[in-house]
Design brief:
heterodimer, A: alpha+beta, DNA polymerase, domain 1, Aldehyde Oxidoreductase, domain 3, 7-stranded mixed beta sheet, 5-stranded mixed beta sheet, 26 helices, B: DNA polymerase, domain 1, 2 domains
Chain lengths: 968, 156
Amino acid sequence: MHSELLFGKGVKMEIRFKLNDRQYTIETAPGENAQQLLQRLGICSVRKSEEPSGFTGSSIILLNNKIVNAELLIAAQLDGHNIKTVESLSKKGGLSPVQKALVEVGVVQSAYNSPAAALVITNLLKRKPDPSRKEIMDALSCLFIRDTGYEPYFKAVEIAKERFKDPEYQGFIAEEFRSDLRIVGKNYPKVDGPQLVAGKRAYVEDRIQPGSLVLKMMRSPYAHAYISSIDTSVAEKTPGVAMIITYKNCPDHYFTTAGQGYPEPSPHDRKMFGQKLRHVGDRVAAVVAESEKIAYKAMRRIKVEYELLPTVLSIEEAEAEDAPVVHNGDIDFLSGAPDNLEQMKQGFDSRDGRIIYPFPIGADPHKNLASSVSNGIGDTEKGFAEADHIIEREYQTSQVHCTPLEPHSVYTLIDGDRLVIHASTQVPWHVRRNIARILGISENRVRVIKERVGGGYGSKQDILLEDVAAFATWKTGLPVFYQFSREEEFIACSSRHPMNIRVKLGAKKDGRLTAIDMKVKANTGPYGNHCLTVPMNACSKTLPLLNCENMSFDVRVFYSNIYPTGAYQGYGAPQGSFALQTALAELAVELGIDHLELIEKNRVGEGSVLEILRCLGEGQEGAVVKLASCGLEKALDLGSKAFAYGKKEESSDPDIKIGKGMAIVQQGSGLPGLDQSNARITLVSDGSLLVHTGGADIGTGLDTVCAKIAAEILCLELEKTSVVSGDTDNTPFDTGAYASSGTYFSGNAVKRAAEDLKKKMLNYAAELLAEPESGLTLEYPGMVKGSKGGLSFHEIAHKAESGTGRGHLVGHDSYTTEDTAIPYGAHFCQVAVNTRTGIVKVQKYHAYMDCGTPINPELAEAQVYGGVLKSIGHTLWEEMKMDGKGVCLNPDLKSYGVPMVGDIPDDFKVKFVQTDDPFGPFGGKSISEVSTNGASCAIATAIHDAVGIWLRDWPFTPEKILTGLGKL
Amino acid sequence: MNKIITFTVNGKKRELNVDVRSSLLDVLREIVGMTGAKEGCGVGECGACSVLVDDLLVDSCIYMAVWADGKSIRTVEGECRDGKLSSVQKSYVEKGAVQCGFCTPGFVMASTAFKERFKDKTFTRDDIRREHAGNICRCTGYESIIEAVEQSMEED
């Protein structure tokens, strides 16, 4: 942003400082902080993740060789000082030993804070060349990292430390797999790692051109209200205001923010702006202006009158007989309209707008019922009758947030007669489809470019700001930037659906299950994005872990006026897993049998037939699966041995009680029958490769997966394989990065495209060599070998593109499937419960994971650490606190309670148990989401083991522990 | 040394803190964010940077930004109103006078100045040639540009 936008008239001062060894003289004014000034100088690595608080560390710089948060410095405080940013580390374009080590160990994932981490560790090693774990922890305590669970950073410090002494030092990175393969299963630096750790331009916010407009959203102060009048006339006259958008001038198009395959299972229950406001923070008006300051000034001039309505916050309130109705609008179905539609929509209020269902999802919106489904296999009534013992338990989960470091961002502009959307998204194609529909234009006129994404975790599967920015650009013709504030990340973003889950288990004396019944009630909040699929997943990613002939489930989802919910890594499975797995542990205690033995008696394994999947399709019939790969046996064996599971541990402190717990987990690998990925690989003129994939790498390493698979099949060096991804103009269609689909779907599409290119290359080489195709093979690096001679890829490409050639060689294929590849895991933990304070300390946590062949072992490992720590966070600390009127009391990272480096278990370990899945690319299955499903059940079980109480609602606070112990 | 200057760009008032050494072109492109005017030569020979300052055609690359203080600037971005091209722009498209397009913003401003100056006056093709002599086009051979100017003179 330029000075004219930052400074009004008034005092200005000239300051001089040294930045990365270059002398600067520049003007600043009151109100500008050092982070903003550095951004103005083009240093984009110093970022803002939260309104200046110093909590995240995204704006860390070195001021006279001391670590400080630039966002907490007044710009003028730089005067006369020596400033260094991450740019000072990577001189001459190469990476420093610390940066290299960070990339190698796999912590440069969504990477928003990677430049800051590189600075912090470099500074630490300068001060203490041989730091202890405690000293490393102290140094990292200034950083919030969401995706890699902090643990791999210790390894990075270790490697960097040795590299300073010996630049050739290698060090152990992560266990490697599949000795029969050259690239897949081996540790190679993530393809976009160097760019990200060096703080180069990469994210949406780095694309903003001078002269762009900014968009700021006026949000509802009330949880449930109608806008009775809104007057923007005075605000519109504010100099510098380009446009104000409200329900009166926005497109009359209903949509869902959920980025899902079409037809979406989520109801189209919102417009860009509505007259009805359904949560605190719901959209009232968007102000598009030349600067943030002008936008806020104009916002204060918008006059709004509200008609307040009684609020509905809990599931109990929502399902009450005379509950206020959150969606009291007209109702339509695109297909499968029920016979009682007229009755269903009776008495609708046009101010509530409409709900359009692409297909029926068991909803009755005027009764606040957003969706419902029930089904099962066998006969649970019979199963319970046969049981020797029945238990019934109720579990409650809370509303927790993804909190990506990079807030949701979008930058829209016009290029020629087309709209270009630079998006921080998991779903570029769904963004294109939705925006085209909202604007009423054809999709060829919209280009979505997925930039590097600074963390998504599900929240960027929703299209939360692209619609309004795109509309503003389409109307004004001008570029528009819109980025959520940290508060908006809490109040206007997707989060985990709070659920109330009743589990009923019937078992024989020996622990064999005779019947399982799960009753899920979920709170979808103000809108129905993901309202069928997330709560269903509470059952579909938990019931298939168990062999039981009689299973039933019932899912009912309610609208309310809490903050919006949606997708979050795990997608309902963490909630369902907490309930079902904890209930199993409770059953084991009641039956007096060993927990592990009960799991062993009932769990699935290789060859099991997952009958229950028949009734767990997302809005369609599912397919019964015969399990092709399952690493549970080995995972349980390793974990139980490492923990001496069942053996009681004692603390020397009489107040501390130690307990152990465990859980088995699963997820899926994409959505068979629903998802689709495509890939195209071109042989470049010199014999190198360009992989075009629609997959959206959101920091997870999907681009690296794609590059590795292509290089492996085509026998070429990884350095000669580049990936272009997630750009709707330049890459083929992909449903997107959700449902853990990346490795399985996008990876398989690349595998097929590579095989297609291989076939074409061999066929052409046969002609050139005048040899039969069957006698030709690819040989590393980049050769086709025959019995008489050979050709390099360069020669083949050159000949193909010559005046007598066959034409540019391109491999292309798509991937759809009915085959299922399920990742598994067993999580073990040991906790210490302080019976005086109620504080639970996770001493030890091991995740034994089966993701088939880990294609990027180091990245997969770091991701599991991240997933586990997020789930320890929502189990123990994270909580969105609301008052009785639906106002969030803690919309900032610190008071919300995200885990920092000091919160990680003392003994934190991830280990892969490799299986070879017949359907996954090179046996690879998904990872990441599955790792969030174990913590709450393992910790709940461990707490019970320690002090004999069951905690059945998140988070397990000291108050709840002490209450359970009868001390409060 | 910096100086605060005020001018209007396409009708909008802007207050800017500019380095006194910068050209109007640099300020328009880098601070205001209007990249329509192009730098083709940087020495006032090619006309790709043409803008109107108080309705007078100037090469913004050799026009100091501080000279624009208090004046009114028009650039090619301002010629397109409510998403509709001006008659000059429309004629350029219709007559095929836009090829690589790099000189077009400057030409459009030159033609706009011509149109406003010769409104209600008689003119010849030579007048058009003379009045566009400060603009270089390497693609079209100028014929289609002259036709575009002629067509735009017939409209409104």
